[in-house]
Amino acid sequence: MDSGYFLFSLDTELAWGHYDYDDLRAKLFSPDGSRERRKIERILAIFNEFEIVGTWAIVGHLWYERCVECEVCPVLEWRGRYASADQIIGTAHPLWYGPDVVERIAASPTPQEIAFHGYTHTPFSEATMSAAQAQLEISEGVRLAAARGVQLRAMVFPRNRIGHLGLFKQAGFTTFRGAEVWPRPYRAPLLGKFLRRYNYYVSILTTPQVFEPSIDASGLVDLPASRWLFGLDARTDAALDNRGWGHIRTNSMIRGIRRAAAEKKVIHLWAHPYEFATEHAFDKLRRLAEAVAEERAAGRMRSVGMTELARLASGSTPDAATAHSVAPALGKG
User: Fold this and answer.
1) Which of 38, 111, 203, 239 has a CA positioned 20 to 30 A from the CA of residue 145?
2) Residues ≥6 apart with Cβ < 8 Å to 222
3) Which residues pair with 270 in a beta bridge?
């Protein structure tokens, strides 16, 4: 690799990520989705200020303006199980329908990448989702994106449950966000069990893993997560921020950015837009973006989307339908 690379993927789902958590969903989100949209605007503002390319993994159903009463719809099976079904079916509820969100991301001055996060945010675990169900999720998501002129190439799995990779390969996908890579101490029989259990508390001080892209057995480029930006529980995170210690964890991620730049490897951070709940959260993002900008100015790092990095890793050429969302960013380093 000719430099370090910075990836930042955002699981962009509005209420879909909590379709099966009715009580929690009501506590987390605004009634009309306006607060969530403002957070996305602020994230984009920081990305544009520092010329950061984000990979926005969109839940496919958000492309709809309202319920179109599809004859075959996975949400119909939620009736009687989740209250979310009544909020989705036959409505235009702004927490469940968001073409304006996708359009705002696509209109960003610093080109952003649009990726896929499932059609309904149902986990793709092969133990619970059949191949037929996965095929429906993939085909509907691809169809909706194509209708807006976007060819989906990158996949971020709902709840990080990775499965049915062969079907994604057949559908034209080239890459996915893989599972976080554990450093050697985390793989030790006894100490590793403890470290994995308390990973995000330990990670306050540890540097995120950096890596070189690899090609999975399915033929897709695996771009594993280095760190979840909000991996601490909200109470602990707030306690650190309120004591002025929030920078400790941010500093560890900045060390990861510096390391990726120095070693010409990749660092891949990720978050959900709704998790930016405080000014401290936006301050953390700004500090990370500043560090990337500094490394880019020194010629040591580039900010790209997942599809572009997968293309570079595999040596392939961009196709016309995806180049518009990623390739223009290359001139910005």
Assistant:
1) 38
2) 175, 176, 178, 213, 214, 215, 216
3) 9, 228
Q: Given the DSSP bridges, would you call strands 221-222 and 214-215 parallel, antiparallel or unpaired?
A: antiparallel
Regarding pTM above 0.85, the answer is yes
Backbone angles phi, psi at 271, to 5 degrees: -165, 170
pLDDT in tens, 30-65: 999 999 999 999 999 999 999 999 999 999 999 999
- In the block, residue with structure tokens 């879909």: 16
pLDDT score at 19: 97
Identify the helix (H) or strand (E) that includes residue 282: helix 279-297
Task: Give the residue carrying structure tokens 């002025």.
Answer: 244
Predicted local confidence at residue 232, as pLDDT? 65
Share in percent of the chain as helix, strand, coil (round to 5) = 50, 10, 40
Is residue 293 over pLDDT 50?
yes
* Cα–Cα distance for residue pair 38/319, rounded to 1 Å: 33
- In angstroms, the CA 58 to CA 65 distance is 14
The residues, any chain, with a CB within 8 Å of residue 175's CB and separated by 6 or more, are 153, 154, 155, 220, 221, 222, 223, 306, 307, 309, 310
CATH of region 4-332, choose from 3.20.20.370, 3.30.70.1150, 3.40.50.740, 3.40.50.2000: 3.20.20.370
Going by the DSSP 8-state scheme, the letter that residue 211 receives in this structure is B
**Backbone torsions φ then ψ of 9, nearest 5 degrees:** -105, 140
Contacts of 304 (CB under 8 A, 6+ apart): 5, 6, 7, 53, 312, 326, 329, 330
**Residue 240's pLDDT band (boundaries 50, 70, 90)?**
confident
**What contacts 24+ positions apart, CB below 8 Å, involve 217-221?**
217/165, 218/165, 218/166, 218/168, 218/169, 219/169, 220/155, 220/165, 220/168, 220/169, 220/173, 220/174, 220/175, 220/176, 220/310, 221/174, 221/175, 221/176, 221/309, 221/310, 221/313, 221/314
Could you state, in order of their start, the residue ranges of all structural domains in the chain?
Answer: 4-332
